[in-house]
Amino acid sequence: MAKQKLQIIPLGGLGEIGKNMTVIRFGDDIVVIDCGLMFPDDDMLGIDLVIPDISYLQENRNLVRAIILTHGHEDHIGALPYVLKELNVPVYGTRLTLGILEGRLQEMHVSAASLVPVKPREQIQVGPFKIGFFSMCHSIADAVGISIKTPVGTIVHSGDFKFDQTPVDGNVADLHRLAELGDQGVLVLLADSTNAERPGHTLSERTVGLAFEEEFRSAKGRILIATFSSNVHRIQQAIDTAAKYRRKVAILGRSMMNVVNIAIELGYLHIPENVLIDIDEINNYPAADLVVITTGSQGEPMSALTRMASNDHRQVDIVPGDTVVISATPIPGNEKLVSRTIDLLFRQGAKVVYERTSGIHVSGHASREELKLLHNLIRPKFFVPVHGEYRHLIKHAQLAQEMGMPKERIFVAENGQVLEFGPDRGVMAGKVTAGKVMVDGLGVGDVGNIVLRDRRQLSQDGILIVVITIDKQSGMVVAGPDIVSRGFVYVRESEALMETAREKVLQALERCDMTGGTEWATIKSTVRDSIGKFLYEKTRRRPMILPLIMEV
Fold first, then answer.
1. Longest Cα–Cα distance in the chain
2. Is 471 an active-site residue?
3. What are the backbone angles phi and psi of residue 223, rounded to the nearest 5°?
4. Which of 116, 242, 248, 395 could make an S-S bridge to 196, C-beta 3.0–4.6 Å?
């Protein structure tokens, strides 16, 4: 019976913001909750995005029964185009979540045949798991939490949530269902920890609408609103406010266009007649009659707002008198990019509204008082904080303790740790492979630490290529050494340094037995060491040195 234990294995989302993925295993059956991506850190040069390492699921591919999605944000669905190439399993999610996902899958030429729509309060049977869905509020419509009834007990996963009593679409979190689950008894609660440091309650999404009103009332020229493309409620409020002030709305940015089209098609976005115009038509209207909703709230280099700020967008230029509203807070790590974009917008003469105090952004995650309410409703036997950096997990664990939960029933885990539960006990039982797989262009996982280390060295001190041509018979140098510098020094201004470097190469070659007694690798190593030492003494820099030896 040893293998009939209930296991929870986080493969991503713990100790980090992004790439959320959790495995639930009972015996020979596995379901996966969410499958997200993460944006690269500053030191991941050239990397486009990061996805979870799914080696554990590949090893157990015959046991994986389904992937269950809580909502349509990239950090919860973004890795699916890559994962579904490896795992052919059904994917369950709400209509908007699957609508956004389908667009992503089509872009990557992955089949969307396995997508199965579900509704809140619906229940499905997957192997031994009875899986239920309940409404939750978040910064995207159609977000749900998940209950999984197993032979050992019930698991509740909150998804990303906050308790918004006045949501834009009127769909409040299903507190009745949460209380019902609590009454029936919950073995393990996994809950969102993103705002576990923040006291009080998170403001309602409707407060952003009021802040928009204020900006629209005072703006004399054109208004540009930058927000996350997935935040349908925010886009709805911007459109409603524009209609109220008799302004036309144009949508800018590929991802924004995709989500808006999907949300209109599925009935999650309601646009009054004659309000929406094409971005190519904006020159036909006075500036005071226009609103442009755009991507780029995170300062992404290729996004519409950043290109406008740099005067590099082919359709829209920022002009004095424009009001730019950045309705988002920077994701950790993006602060510099956002600051640079704001500076550039001010330089172009725009009024930029970005301060948190202005009320033009609210979080989509529960603050401490809402987390307490969740714990009181669910009253679980065991608790695993998820979705947050390590300090967030610790703060959430401390909050559970303050509410009377014994410390030994709280598990602050790391990605890859196996948590094993029986009806009355929980233990950490070993580790599985978990980590980061880097995506660069079309390559998935082909860039690792060694390639990144080389990229870092190239970015810091450049490269020096030493080309030597050697006679095969005599071992004599017949041409060169020629030295090519890229990103190290400008050769024309450093001719004396380069000349001395050439002499150092020749001296190094003289020390080697060139008549065939010495390996090429040894010769290259000798050249690299001698020129490296010389250049460090002269410049205090360590460029990458690449000796190329050709025989004739």
1. 89
2. no
3. -115, 130
4. 395
- What residue has token string 């969102």? 192
Does 164 participate in catalysis according to the annotation?
Answer: no
Strands 154-157 and 188-192: parallel
Three-class secondary structure assignment of 413-458: CCCCEEEEECCCCEEEEEECCCCEEEEECCEECCCCHHHHHHHHHH
How far is it, in rounded angstroms, from Cα 310 to Cα 283?
A: 20
Q: Which pTM value belongs to this model?
A: 0.84
What letter represents residue 201's amino acid? Answer: H
Residues 6+ apart with CB under 8 A from 280: 315
Question: Which is the catalytic residue, given 75, 164, 192, 322?
Answer: 192
Residue 77: both structure tokens together: 């669905």
Catalytic member of 71, 138, 361, 365: 365
Place of tokens 């509740």: 156
- pLDDT tens string, the chain, 552 residues long: the values are 345 789 999 999 999 888 999 999 999 999 999 999 988 776 666 677 888 988 999 999 999 999 999 999 988 998 999 899 889 999 999 999 999 999 889 888 888 889 999 999 999 999 999 999 999 999 899 999 999 999 999 999 999 999 999 999 889 999 999 999 999 999 999 999 999 999 999 999 999 999 999 999 999 999 999 998 888 999 999 999 999 999 999 999 888 999 999 999 999 999 999 999 999 999 999 999 999 999 988 888 778 899 999 988 888 999 999 999 999 888 777 788 899 999 999 999 999 998 766 788 999 999 999 999 999 999 999 999 999 999 999 999 999 999 999 999 999 999 999 999 999 889 998 899 888 887 776 666 666 677 767 777 777 788 888 888 877 776 677 777 888 888 787 767 777 888 888 888 877 777 776 555 557 777 788 888 888 888 888 888 888 888 888 777
